[in-house]
Amino acid sequence: MATVCKKKNFSLKVLSRNPDNYKRETKLDIHRAPQNPEAYLHPFALDREYQRALNATKLERVFAKPFLCGLEGHKDSIEVLAKFPTRLAHILSAASDGEIRLWDLSTKKCVSSVVAHHGLVHGLCSHRTGQYFISCGQDANIKFWGCSEEGQISPDPLKTLLTKQVYQCVDHHEKEDIFVTCGQSLDVWIGDRSQPLQSYKWGLDSMHYVRFNRIETHLVAAAADDRSIMLYDTRGSSAVQKLIMKMKTNAISWNPMQAFVFTAACDDYNLYTYDVRNLRMATNKHEDHIAAVMDVDYAPTGKEFVTAGYDKCVRIFNAVEGHSRDIYTTKRMQRVNHVLWSMDNKYILSGSDEMSIRLWKAKASEKLGVMKPREKTAFNTTEVLKKTFKDYPEIRRISRHRHVPKMIYHHKQEMRDIKESQKRKESNRRFHSKPGAVPFQPERKKQVVEVKD
Amino acid sequence: MELSKKNEGQEKQKINYFFPKEPDKRGGAKFSFSRRPNENVTEKPVPEERMKKWRKGDKAKGFAKTYFHTNKIRAREEIFEKVAEKSARSELLCVEETGGLEGDKTYEITQNDIKESSDEATQQKIFDLRLDKFGPYRLDYTRNGRHLLIGGAKGHVAAFDWQTKRLHCEINVMETVSDVKWLHQETMFAVAQKKWVYIYDNQGIEIHCLKHLDMALRLEFLPYHFLLCSSSAKGYLSYLDVSIGKEVAGICTKQGRLDVMAVNPQSAIVHLGHPTGVVSLWTPNMKEPAAKVLCHASALRDVAVDASGIYMATTGMDRRLKIFDLRMYKELSRFQYIRRHCPGLLDFSQKGILAVSRDNVVEISLPRSHKPDKPYIYHRADRLVADLMFCPYEDVLGIGHGWGFSSIVVPGAGEPNYDAMEANPFQSRSQRKQTEVHMLLDKVRPEMITLDGQIGQVDVKTAQEAAEERLKKKYLKPDKVDFTPKNKMKGASSASKIVQRKKGVQEQHLRAAVREIVRTKQVEGKLNTRNKNRKDLEPSALDRLKKKSV
């Protein structure tokens, strides 16, 4: 409003708001909300955001209820878990009594089951199309099982291969009709042949775990009983590399997004992430378990992985961090032998000694189900806030706190003491010896004994 | 050739963002909302001068310890830059303009002149309430500037929407009223009465009697902390959390009667004025003042802090008006009034306009251009002025005086563009309820009121202590910590200060090195004495296997 008064010669402009410009026109409209980013109109903006982040962190802990359900039905301890690369809801599991079950996660029920082998089932893997899966067992058979779209397993195997040796693990190629089995040797099978196309052997010991790389699809990593991890190329005639560590490796998982990265679950309570281009030093050491790590599986995003511990817990690690971001336990869960991260990045499955498969949420406090856009935005906002203020002492304390079983809590402290005393001893030794005689050795290098080409 | 033909064909076509697709046989969408492929939309960059206003600090220089972290910081800075750019671009959406009054002698322009030459809505804002029985009056506007609360010293309290002139309630509390204050919204207000502070709702029903706060003379409310502060005749400063009804802090200031109080809206620090001419700054977390500023050589009349929290104005019995910079606690300017005139009450508007009362006169001056003899606007009230307050988001100054209340128009006083997320003059009832819930959820804890905001700062002190702790542990590889002094705010990074800070760090390293040497020597000494003791025995061939000191 600007006017000019002639009498006293002044021009006047007064703030005069027309309410019509600020109110909504009809009841069906949304309210008008003009904004002004001027700093002085937003006092304590940072303090309020901090408060919001704090509240969000607290709520996250309040809603952290990861356990969804137990999948009951097996009559013996779980031997293997396997997922279908192209089906979200279906999961395969095999038990020590030779039974294979197919579970539907959306209904949380067993769809079909079949007694596949006499004695233990050692290995289980599915074909990329999901039309059939392969199992190998104590009875020295490799069996192919048909699997319908609805999850019905064919009552009889499509094909049975009688082998001379008992295979410990089986894995299928990502694209071609090739699969590998391992036992006394690493055998590559192709198409309809009843004899392996290729058989690799390096040293005397037997192998117990084998995995195909999902990107560099001909690369295979195998873990052997002589504490070694071997890399093979299925197109070549001999092994590529062999890494010998101080302790045995129980399981290996390739990073699905980075072709050259794999993580090994080791008997020395730790996991080691390696870059295949340089095996002399791990790129990361993941500690926190207080007993042997039995299994590891990457999330489909490649950013996180889940581990199964002999210490009766499941832990989730950020792939680039040295300590776990979360731990899942229940009172009744016994030694966990197998874990799986579902292909939709939302769920985790764990198979443990007491014949039960457990279904967990990958993010403990995540809300399941359909969300409205506003809700989704609110969650996104709180995520960003939590990330922004994550290093503030109060927020870090709350977000890191976990109520763990007594056994784990005390054992963890013990481990910490052991580690500290070892370090002290080493430093004393260094102090009392010639300079340079006791060198500093990186933690990521200590476990490597030898690398052979 | 083909390519050029293709381009020609495209030019001839009409530009159409939403073009129909071939009708889908399966009944899918009939329109595709995608941009035409070859069309690039480039935004004009924001001029550097405008960006400068919105940037909140300098860019980080140099590199972090690792490449990874350097990149992380760079990525973060990119986001900050984007925020600044968006803020600069959103200036366009702030459509209302600040008011103004231009002419030769603006102080000669009366409210009547303004009334004659302004629109009807503005005319409505100039009004007087003749309430000569219960005065003098104290007043308070709500944070959105919509509602007004007045309280006469003899017990008359009234709350109303001053723009529509709709009365919420009018009561007589039958006691002396020394101050009135709205709480976080227009649903509740606090009245400091003769003995205790009472809280009423907007219908005038007494909800609470706060016996914690007795003999209160002044009330202030901190909306983001939900704290009601009162200063009492006995020298007590009390903080009461109105959301839980608990007294957060009760501080005995030992300064006598506290009848001068102001709040810094940016830091929630309470400024108390004392008869000694001292302004003391208080937080609820300390029993002692966080700072004291000697402002005047005589008793203080009033204190006011501006909306940006930078400037503080004080008036004293020595007939002076002073303006201070709160970042440095430095006097910026002072004005001496003539003998018969003594400046009294003060208030800053949102845009920094300062109103000063002396007796029944109110002088209003533009930011940082105070001239006692030639003010921006000069207004004479009916009686002695008892309270002054600018209405937020309006060009209006409310004056409480002996004969009631008058509202005058001061062009350019209020912020023209409000932020509906903070304060909304046009909010509906449901919006009000929603806001209340959000305010309670985001309530800032009273512990966070500090002289220098701690949340945004880097905690170098704790980091240094942790590093020192680490250095003590012999078995850890010594950490290299570089506490290079950063260029701080004005004044803090003079050459001598930098050297001082650097010296402090160097000294720590030196101390660590000395500690190392001492320890080595101790061990050496031990070995020597051990060997010496052995020397008493007969020398033997095995002596050469003895441990020698280095």
UniProtKB/TrEMBL annotation, chain A:
One GO CC term on file: small-subunit processome
InterPro entries in the cross-refs: Sof1 (IPR007287), TIF_beta_prop-like (IPR013979), WD40/YVTN_repeat-like_dom_sf (IPR015943), WD40_repeat_CS (IPR019775), WD40_repeat_dom_sf (IPR036322), WD40_rpt (IPR001680), WD_repeat_DCAF13/WDSOF1 (IPR051733)
GO molecular function: translation initiation factor activity
Ranges for the WD repeats: 71-113, 114-145, 286-318, 329-370
Comp. bias regions, Basic and acidic residues: 412-429, 442-453
Span of domain Sof1-like protein: 362-448
Keywords for this protein: Initiation factor, Nucleus, Protein biosynthesis, Repeat, Ribonucleoprotein, WD repeat
Pfam families assigned to the protein according to its UniProt record, in alphabetical order: eIF2A, Sof1, WD40
Keyword Transcription regulation carried by entry: no
Biological process, per Gene Ontology: maturation of SSU-rRNA from tricistronic rRNA transcript (SSU-rRNA, 5.8S rRNA, LSU-rRNA)
Region called Disordered, residue ranges: 412-453
Compartment annotation: Nucleus, Nucleolus
Signal peptide: none
The keyword Repeat belongs to this UniProt entry's keyword annotation: yes
Major subcellular site: nucleus
Chain ranges of the Translation initiation factor beta propellor-like domain: 222-320
Record-stated family: Belongs to the WD repeat DCAF13/WDSOF1 family.
Protein name (record): DDB1- and CUL4-associated factor 13
Species of provenance: Candidula unifasciata
UniProtKB/TrEMBL annotation, chain B:
Keywords, alphabetical: Nucleus, Repeat, rRNA processing, WD repeat
Domain of life: Eukaryota
Bias kind Basic and acidic residues: ranges: 1-14, 36-55, 534-544
Gene Ontology biological-process annotations: maturation of SSU-rRNA from tricistronic rRNA transcript (SSU-rRNA, 5.8S rRNA, LSU-rRNA)
Region (Disordered): 1-55, 486-506, 522-550
GO cellular component terms given for this protein: 90S preribosome; small-subunit processome
Coiled-coil stretches noted in the UniProt entry, renumbered to this chain: none
Record carries keyword rRNA-binding: no
InterPro entries in UniProt: BING4_C_dom, WD40/YVTN_repeat-like_dom_sf, WD40_repeat_dom_sf, WD40_rpt, WDR46/Utp7
Location of the protein in the cell: Nucleus, Nucleolus
Subcellular location, principal: nucleus
Ranges of residues in domain BING4 C-terminal: 375-453
Protein's UniProt name: BING4 C-terminal domain-containing protein
Protein source organism: Candidula unifasciata
